Amino acid sequence: MDCLFCAIIKGEIPSKKVYEDDSCYAFLDINPQAPVHCLVVPKEHIASVDAINSESADKVAAIFTAIPKIAASLGLTNGYRVVSNIGEDGCQSVKHLHFHILGGKKLSENMA
Ligand code: AMP
Ligand code: ZN
Q1: What pLDDT does residue 111 have?
Q2: Is 11 left (phi over 0), alpha (psi -120 to 50) or beta?
Q3: Ligand of minimum distance to the alpha carbon of 2
Q4: Alpha-carbon torsion 46, 49, 53, 55, what sign?
Q5: DSSP calls for 45-85
Q6: 76-111 pLDDT, tens per residue?
Q7: 45 catalytic, yes or no?
Q8: How close are the terminal C-alpha atoms of the chain, in Å?
């Protein structure tokens, strides 16, 4: 399978790592849309939120356990936003589940 984020997790494509544990990996977005913009992904390939099931739910729980630690390590002491784009209408461009962490300024109230 040809997956950009699987290649990043394996180190085949370079990334700016900000966090890693047994089940997830976080790195800075190459095209930041806020002063702080990183992506958190499960190491196991899951296509999107739509593909989460009872067998992969623990991987997602691990991501959400890591997110506050990652946010703190990036200095996001005054709040931040977590976003996951899903499918065509959600404008998901990489088909490996990922959560955007956005912050470092007062974000727009407009989400759509
Ligand atoms: P999405 O549009 O929700 O699928 O998000 C994919 C994100 O991956 C976008 O914000 C891209 O800027 C980001 N991205 C694409 N290629 C890379 C890369 N090689 N390293 C880091 N981020 C990337
Ligand atoms: Zn993948």
Answers
A1: 92
A2: left
A3: 2
A4: positive
A5: ----GGG--TTTHHHHHHHHHHHHHHHHHTT-TT-EEEE--
A6: 999 999 999 999 999 999 999 999 999 999 999 999
A7: no
A8: 31
pLDDT tens per residue, range 44-64? 999 999 999 999 999 999 999
Give the C-alpha separation, 32 to 80, whole Å.
14
Pocket test for ligand 1, best of 94, 96, 100 (most atoms within 8 A of CB): 94
Q: How far is 86 from 73, CA to CA, in rounded Å?
A: 27
pLDDT score for 1: 76
Centroid of ligand 2 to alpha carbon of 23 (angstroms): 13
Task: Please write the tens of the pLDDT for every residue from 20-46.
Answer: 999 999 999 999 999 999 999 999 999
- The owner of tokens 């931040």 is 80
Q: In angstroms, what is the span from residue 6 Cα to ligand 2's centroid?
A: 4
**Both tokens assigned to 88:** 């065509």
